[in-house]
Automatic annotation (TrEMBL):
Keyword check for Ion transport: no
Protein name: Iron complex transport system permease protein
GO cellular component terms given for this protein: plasma membrane
Main subcellular location: membrane
Source organism: Treponema bryantii
Gene3D superfamilies reported for this sequence: ABC transporter involved in vitamin B12 uptake, BtuC (1.10.3470.10)
Record's subcellular location: Cell membrane
Amino acid sequence: MKNGKPLWIRVSLLIILLSISAIISLILFPTKLDFTMEQSRLFHIIYKIRLPELLIAITAGACLGLAGSIMQIILDNPLASPFTLGISSASAFGAALSICLESNIGFNFLNPEISAFLFSVLSIVLLLIITSLAGLNKRSIILVGLALNFFFNATNTILQYFSTPDAVYQITFWTTGSLTVATIKDSIILFSILVCSLFVSLLFSKDLGIIQQGERNAVMHGVNVNFERILFLLVCSLLASTTVSIVGIIGFIGLITPHIAKLLNLKSPKYLLISSTIIGAFLLVISDMVSKTILHPTILPISAITSLFGIPLLIFLLFIKKVR
Protein backbone atom coordinates (compact mmCIF):
# COMPACT_ATOMS: atom_id res chain seq x y z
CA MET A 1 0.00 0.00 0.00
CA LYS A 2 2.87 2.37 0.76
CA ASN A 3 4.18 2.01 -2.77
CA GLY A 4 0.75 2.00 -4.38
CA LYS A 5 -0.63 5.17 -2.81
CA PRO A 6 1.86 7.64 -4.35
CA LEU A 7 1.34 6.01 -7.75
CA TRP A 8 -2.42 6.47 -7.52
CA ILE A 9 -1.85 10.07 -6.46
CA ARG A 10 0.19 10.62 -9.64
CA VAL A 11 -2.51 9.03 -11.78
CA SER A 12 -5.14 11.21 -10.04
CA LEU A 13 -3.06 14.31 -10.75
CA LEU A 14 -2.90 13.32 -14.41
CA ILE A 15 -6.70 13.03 -14.49
CA ILE A 16 -7.02 16.48 -12.88
CA LEU A 17 -4.55 17.93 -15.38
CA LEU A 18 -6.53 16.42 -18.27
CA SER A 19 -9.79 17.81 -16.86
CA ILE A 20 -8.36 21.32 -16.49
CA SER A 21 -6.92 21.28 -20.03
CA ALA A 22 -10.28 20.06 -21.39
CA ILE A 23 -12.20 22.90 -19.70
CA ILE A 24 -9.65 25.48 -20.90
CA SER A 25 -9.87 24.08 -24.45
CA LEU A 26 -13.67 24.23 -24.42
CA ILE A 27 -13.87 27.83 -23.16
CA LEU A 28 -10.78 29.60 -24.53
CA PHE A 29 -9.69 27.95 -27.80
CA PRO A 30 -9.50 29.05 -30.53
CA THR A 31 -11.07 32.22 -29.04
CA LYS A 32 -12.59 32.96 -25.64
CA LEU A 33 -16.32 32.29 -25.48
CA ASP A 34 -18.58 35.26 -24.87
CA PHE A 35 -21.24 34.00 -22.46
CA THR A 36 -23.30 37.17 -22.98
CA MET A 37 -24.04 36.26 -26.59
CA GLU A 38 -27.36 34.88 -27.76
CA GLN A 39 -28.11 31.56 -26.03
CA SER A 40 -28.89 29.62 -29.21
CA ARG A 41 -25.62 30.74 -30.79
CA LEU A 42 -23.63 29.86 -27.67
CA PHE A 43 -25.29 26.45 -27.57
CA HIS A 44 -24.38 25.86 -31.23
CA ILE A 45 -20.72 26.81 -30.69
CA ILE A 46 -20.29 24.61 -27.61
CA TYR A 47 -22.33 21.52 -28.47
CA LYS A 48 -22.03 21.45 -32.26
CA ILE A 49 -18.42 22.61 -32.78
CA ARG A 50 -16.18 22.65 -29.70
CA LEU A 51 -17.53 19.74 -27.66
CA PRO A 52 -17.31 17.15 -30.49
CA GLU A 53 -13.69 18.20 -31.22
CA LEU A 54 -12.76 18.07 -27.54
CA LEU A 55 -14.33 14.65 -27.02
CA ILE A 56 -12.66 13.19 -30.11
CA ALA A 57 -9.30 14.65 -29.01
CA ILE A 58 -9.65 12.97 -25.59
CA THR A 59 -10.82 9.59 -26.90
CA ALA A 60 -8.46 9.43 -29.90
CA GLY A 61 -5.47 10.49 -27.80
CA ALA A 62 -6.38 7.96 -25.12
CA CYS A 63 -6.71 5.15 -27.69
CA LEU A 64 -3.32 5.95 -29.23
CA GLY A 65 -1.69 6.25 -25.81
CA LEU A 66 -3.06 2.89 -24.66
CA ALA A 67 -2.10 1.19 -27.93
CA GLY A 68 1.42 2.61 -27.69
CA SER A 69 1.97 1.31 -24.17
CA ILE A 70 0.69 -2.15 -25.11
CA MET A 71 2.97 -2.31 -28.15
CA GLN A 72 6.05 -1.32 -26.15
CA ILE A 73 5.27 -3.93 -23.49
CA ILE A 74 4.58 -6.92 -25.75
CA LEU A 75 7.44 -6.13 -28.15
CA ASP A 76 9.81 -5.00 -25.39
CA ASN A 77 10.86 -2.15 -27.67
CA PRO A 78 10.88 1.54 -26.64
CA LEU A 79 10.49 2.56 -30.30
CA ALA A 80 7.31 0.54 -30.86
CA SER A 81 4.08 2.42 -31.52
CA PRO A 82 0.56 1.60 -32.74
CA PHE A 83 1.79 2.19 -36.31
CA THR A 84 4.68 -0.31 -36.07
CA LEU A 85 2.28 -2.90 -37.51
CA GLY A 86 1.82 -0.96 -40.77
CA ILE A 87 -1.68 0.13 -39.78
CA SER A 88 -1.18 3.82 -40.62
CA SER A 89 0.15 3.22 -44.14
CA ALA A 90 -2.50 0.57 -44.85
CA SER A 91 -5.31 2.87 -43.75
CA ALA A 92 -3.82 5.73 -45.77
CA PHE A 93 -3.79 3.48 -48.83
CA GLY A 94 -7.41 2.47 -48.20
CA ALA A 95 -8.55 6.07 -47.96
CA ALA A 96 -6.47 7.06 -51.00
CA LEU A 97 -7.93 4.20 -53.04
CA SER A 98 -11.47 5.27 -52.23
CA ILE A 99 -10.73 8.93 -53.06
CA CYS A 100 -8.94 8.06 -56.33
CA LEU A 101 -11.68 5.74 -57.55
CA GLU A 102 -14.31 8.39 -56.98
CA SER A 103 -12.19 11.18 -58.47
CA ASN A 104 -10.92 9.34 -61.55
CA ILE A 105 -13.83 7.14 -62.59
CA GLY A 106 -16.69 8.34 -60.40
CA PHE A 107 -16.92 4.95 -58.69
CA ASN A 108 -17.76 5.41 -55.00
CA PHE A 109 -17.09 1.88 -53.73
CA LEU A 110 -16.66 2.84 -50.06
CA ASN A 111 -16.19 6.14 -48.28
CA PRO A 112 -12.58 6.86 -47.20
CA GLU A 113 -13.22 6.15 -43.50
CA ILE A 114 -14.63 2.65 -44.05
CA SER A 115 -12.04 1.83 -46.70
CA ALA A 116 -9.25 2.99 -44.36
CA PHE A 117 -10.58 0.78 -41.58
CA LEU A 118 -10.88 -2.28 -43.83
CA PHE A 119 -7.35 -1.95 -45.16
CA SER A 120 -5.92 -1.42 -41.67
CA VAL A 121 -7.64 -4.65 -40.62
CA LEU A 122 -6.20 -6.31 -43.73
CA SER A 123 -2.69 -5.25 -42.67
CA ILE A 124 -3.00 -6.90 -39.26
CA VAL A 125 -4.45 -10.07 -40.85
CA LEU A 126 -1.49 -10.22 -43.23
CA LEU A 127 0.91 -9.63 -40.36
CA LEU A 128 -0.58 -12.45 -38.28
CA ILE A 129 -0.55 -14.86 -41.24
CA ILE A 130 3.07 -14.13 -42.15
CA THR A 131 4.37 -14.13 -38.58
CA SER A 132 2.54 -17.37 -37.76
CA LEU A 133 4.47 -18.97 -40.63
CA ALA A 134 7.80 -17.27 -39.87
CA GLY A 135 7.55 -17.54 -36.09
CA LEU A 136 5.47 -15.38 -33.77
CA ASN A 137 8.32 -13.55 -32.03
CA LYS A 138 9.15 -9.89 -31.42
CA ARG A 139 11.67 -9.63 -34.24
CA SER A 140 9.31 -11.17 -36.83
CA ILE A 141 6.44 -8.87 -35.83
CA ILE A 142 8.60 -5.74 -36.15
CA LEU A 143 10.17 -6.81 -39.47
CA VAL A 144 6.86 -7.82 -41.06
CA GLY A 145 5.24 -4.62 -39.76
CA LEU A 146 7.98 -2.53 -41.35
CA ALA A 147 7.66 -4.47 -44.63
CA LEU A 148 3.91 -3.87 -44.73
CA ASN A 149 4.47 -0.22 -43.89
CA PHE A 150 6.85 0.24 -46.85
CA PHE A 151 4.59 -1.75 -49.17
CA PHE A 152 1.46 0.32 -48.49
CA ASN A 153 3.47 3.57 -48.60
CA ALA A 154 4.74 2.58 -52.05
CA THR A 155 1.26 1.70 -53.34
CA ASN A 156 -0.10 4.95 -51.90
CA THR A 157 2.59 6.91 -53.74
CA ILE A 158 1.75 5.14 -57.01
CA LEU A 159 -1.95 5.94 -56.53
CA GLN A 160 -1.21 9.63 -56.00
CA TYR A 161 1.06 9.70 -59.05
CA PHE A 162 -1.88 8.73 -61.30
CA SER A 163 -4.49 10.79 -59.44
CA THR A 164 -6.01 14.17 -60.21
CA PRO A 165 -4.73 17.25 -58.31
CA ASP A 166 -8.01 17.43 -56.40
CA ALA A 167 -7.69 13.80 -55.31
CA VAL A 168 -4.08 14.35 -54.21
CA TYR A 169 -5.23 17.33 -52.11
CA GLN A 170 -7.96 15.25 -50.45
CA ILE A 171 -5.52 12.40 -49.73
CA THR A 172 -2.99 14.81 -48.22
CA PHE A 173 -5.66 16.45 -46.07
CA TRP A 174 -6.87 13.06 -44.84
CA THR A 175 -3.42 11.65 -44.04
CA THR A 176 -2.34 14.72 -42.03
CA GLY A 177 -5.07 14.08 -39.48
CA SER A 178 -8.00 16.28 -38.47
CA LEU A 179 -10.38 16.49 -35.52
CA THR A 180 -12.75 18.98 -37.16
CA VAL A 181 -14.84 16.43 -39.07
CA ALA A 182 -15.48 14.10 -36.12
CA THR A 183 -18.85 13.88 -34.39
CA ILE A 184 -20.02 12.97 -30.90
CA LYS A 185 -21.12 9.62 -32.34
CA ASP A 186 -17.51 8.97 -33.39
CA SER A 187 -16.37 9.78 -29.84
CA ILE A 188 -18.87 7.30 -28.43
CA ILE A 189 -17.56 4.59 -30.75
CA LEU A 190 -13.95 5.30 -29.78
CA PHE A 191 -14.84 5.50 -26.08
CA SER A 192 -16.58 2.12 -26.20
CA ILE A 193 -13.55 0.51 -27.87
CA LEU A 194 -11.22 2.26 -25.40
CA VAL A 195 -13.11 0.97 -22.34
CA CYS A 196 -13.22 -2.61 -23.65
CA SER A 197 -9.53 -2.54 -24.63
CA LEU A 198 -8.46 -1.05 -21.29
CA PHE A 199 -10.51 -3.65 -19.41
CA VAL A 200 -8.88 -6.52 -21.33
CA SER A 201 -5.43 -4.99 -20.86
CA LEU A 202 -5.85 -4.54 -17.11
CA LEU A 203 -7.26 -8.06 -16.86
CA PHE A 204 -3.99 -9.42 -18.26
CA SER A 205 -1.72 -6.78 -16.68
CA LYS A 206 -0.15 -9.31 -14.33
CA ASP A 207 0.79 -11.54 -17.28
CA LEU A 208 2.17 -8.52 -19.13
CA GLY A 209 4.40 -7.81 -16.16
CA ILE A 210 5.73 -11.38 -16.28
CA ILE A 211 6.28 -11.15 -20.05
CA GLN A 212 8.29 -7.96 -19.47
CA GLN A 213 10.74 -10.01 -17.39
CA GLY A 214 11.46 -12.32 -20.34
CA GLU A 215 9.64 -14.91 -22.43
CA ARG A 216 11.35 -17.87 -20.76
CA ASN A 217 10.33 -16.62 -17.36
CA ALA A 218 6.76 -16.11 -18.61
CA VAL A 219 6.58 -19.68 -19.95
CA MET A 220 7.88 -21.00 -16.62
CA HIS A 221 5.05 -19.13 -14.88
CA GLY A 222 2.50 -20.76 -17.19
CA VAL A 223 1.81 -17.71 -19.37
CA ASN A 224 0.79 -18.50 -22.94
CA VAL A 225 3.03 -15.87 -24.56
CA ASN A 226 1.95 -16.47 -28.18
CA PHE A 227 -1.76 -16.33 -27.32
CA GLU A 228 -1.41 -13.09 -25.37
CA ARG A 229 0.82 -11.56 -28.04
CA ILE A 230 -1.85 -12.27 -30.69
CA LEU A 231 -4.57 -10.99 -28.34
CA PHE A 232 -2.83 -7.69 -27.73
CA LEU A 233 -1.85 -7.27 -31.37
CA LEU A 234 -5.56 -7.50 -32.15
CA VAL A 235 -6.38 -5.03 -29.36
CA CYS A 236 -3.77 -2.57 -30.66
CA SER A 237 -4.96 -2.94 -34.23
CA LEU A 238 -8.56 -2.30 -33.18
CA LEU A 239 -7.57 0.82 -31.23
CA ALA A 240 -5.30 2.20 -33.95
CA SER A 241 -7.40 1.29 -37.00
CA THR A 242 -10.60 2.75 -35.58
CA THR A 243 -8.83 5.93 -34.48
CA VAL A 244 -7.09 6.39 -37.84
CA SER A 245 -10.28 5.75 -39.81
CA ILE A 246 -12.01 8.56 -37.87
CA VAL A 247 -9.34 11.25 -37.40
CA GLY A 248 -6.64 10.25 -39.91
CA ILE A 249 -2.99 9.57 -39.12
CA ILE A 250 -1.73 11.24 -35.93
CA GLY A 251 1.84 10.31 -35.12
CA PHE A 252 4.05 10.39 -32.02
CA ILE A 253 1.23 10.18 -29.44
CA GLY A 254 1.49 6.40 -29.13
CA LEU A 255 5.29 6.52 -29.16
CA ILE A 256 5.89 9.24 -26.59
CA THR A 257 3.20 8.61 -23.94
CA PRO A 258 4.73 5.43 -22.40
CA HIS A 259 8.07 7.24 -22.03
CA ILE A 260 6.42 10.12 -20.15
CA ALA A 261 4.61 7.62 -17.90
CA LYS A 262 7.89 5.84 -17.14
CA LEU A 263 9.51 9.19 -16.36
CA LEU A 264 6.80 9.64 -13.72
CA ASN A 265 7.87 6.24 -12.35
CA LEU A 266 4.62 4.61 -13.48
CA LYS A 267 6.42 1.57 -14.86
CA SER A 268 4.33 -1.42 -13.78
CA PRO A 269 1.99 -2.60 -16.57
CA LYS A 270 -1.21 -1.62 -14.74
CA TYR A 271 -0.09 1.93 -14.01
CA LEU A 272 1.68 2.26 -17.35
CA LEU A 273 -1.48 1.35 -19.27
CA ILE A 274 -3.72 3.71 -17.29
CA SER A 275 -1.30 6.64 -17.23
CA SER A 276 -0.42 6.30 -20.94
CA THR A 277 -4.13 6.46 -21.74
CA ILE A 278 -4.56 9.69 -19.76
CA ILE A 279 -1.33 11.27 -21.04
CA GLY A 280 -2.28 10.45 -24.64
CA ALA A 281 -5.60 12.26 -24.20
CA PHE A 282 -3.87 15.23 -22.54
CA LEU A 283 -1.24 15.57 -25.30
CA LEU A 284 -3.81 15.50 -28.09
CA VAL A 285 -6.01 18.10 -26.33
CA ILE A 286 -2.97 20.40 -25.96
CA SER A 287 -1.93 19.77 -29.57
CA ASP A 288 -5.46 20.59 -30.72
CA MET A 289 -5.35 23.91 -28.86
CA VAL A 290 -2.00 24.80 -30.43
CA SER A 291 -3.13 23.82 -33.94
CA LYS A 292 -6.11 26.19 -33.65
CA THR A 293 -4.28 29.21 -32.26
CA ILE A 294 -0.68 29.32 -33.51
CA LEU A 295 -1.78 30.72 -36.92
CA HIS A 296 -5.38 31.65 -36.07
CA PRO A 297 -7.77 31.59 -37.93
CA THR A 298 -5.91 28.92 -39.94
CA ILE A 299 -6.11 25.46 -38.36
CA LEU A 300 -2.86 23.53 -38.81
CA PRO A 301 -2.79 19.74 -39.39
CA ILE A 302 -2.87 18.05 -36.00
CA SER A 303 -0.23 15.47 -36.96
CA ALA A 304 2.24 18.25 -37.73
CA ILE A 305 1.76 19.69 -34.25
CA THR A 306 2.13 16.32 -32.50
CA SER A 307 5.33 15.66 -34.44
CA LEU A 308 6.75 19.12 -33.73
CA PHE A 309 6.03 18.59 -30.03
CA GLY A 310 6.96 14.92 -30.02
CA ILE A 311 10.44 15.11 -31.54
CA PRO A 312 11.99 17.58 -29.03
CA LEU A 313 10.08 15.95 -26.19
CA LEU A 314 11.47 12.54 -27.11
CA ILE A 315 15.02 13.93 -27.28
CA PHE A 316 14.48 15.66 -23.92
CA LEU A 317 13.31 12.41 -22.33
CA LEU A 318 16.39 10.62 -23.67
CA PHE A 319 18.66 13.21 -22.02
CA ILE A 320 16.69 13.00 -18.75
CA LYS A 321 17.08 9.22 -18.68
CA LYS A 322 20.80 9.55 -19.40
CA VAL A 323 21.25 11.99 -16.53
CA ARG A 324 19.37 9.68 -14.19
